[in-house]
Amino acid sequence: MPREDSWSVEEIEAIVDTYHKMLIAELSQQHYNKAALNRQLAERLPKRTPGSIEFKHCNISAVLRDADCPYVAGYKPRSNYQSTLVKSVEQRLLCSEIFDRAALLATERPVIDTSPETLDDIIVEPPSTSPQVQEVPGNYVVKRDYLAREARNRDLDHAGESFVLAYERQRLIAEGERQLAALVEHVAETQGDGAGFDIRSFSADGSERLIEVKTTAFAKECAFFISPNELNCSRDNAANYHLYRLFDFRKRPQMFCLQGNLRDHLWLEPDNYRASVR
User: Fold this and answer.
1) HEC string for 9-52
2) What is the model's pTM?
3) Is 19 in the same domain as 71?
4) What is the reported pLDDT for 135?
5) Residue at which a domain ends, from 61, 78, 108
């Protein structure tokens, strides 16, 4: 028997449709009025408080996060969503042609190299959310490949590495280590992609920092992809290895950092296997 406060199918469809409009606008870099859309939504949902509407938006973000899709900025994913919400998001958002086109364009859009204007407020704490646990066992949303497509965007990849390169040089200069700043190396450019990290930098005491850069134009909690070589390098160089995760890159780049053996920090899911016939 449904709980007294359970959302009806009609209510869920209404909020998913509103969220859909917001997400398409953001992916298309089009201005929109979030407050006005939510006021219109509240008129259609007279039984729901602003807090419950906000929470359900965050549930929709969690469904999209778990499907490896971008989601609306400002609605931090909140898990424990219901199967009826998954079904509505699948049917009314993920299966829409306009979402697919907007998401594909967002993942493949070119980007130019940039440098941090200031060192202030760039480093933030890593996401605190734990791997999602759903209310209905086995009710898994089907994953898409938008984040994988973005990971293959070489313009974005290079721009993120260049941003971190400039950040590291500025950081060392600010710490009074100009000589070390001059030695910071873009290893992905000078040696190729096989080293297991992208940038060789230094701490103020002269010890090396081996930095792997992962860049997204999307939100902080979005998943990213890491190779066995990068994982092994982090294990073999745990004292010096750093992963810098850049996010919101096209708007206001920020990043969080993970240090040491990445297996100690990451929830790893097998993505695919290389196969050959025996």
Assistant:
1) HHHHHHHHHHHHHHHHHHHCCCCCCHHHHHHHHHHHCCCCCHHH
2) 0.89
3) yes
4) 39
5) 108
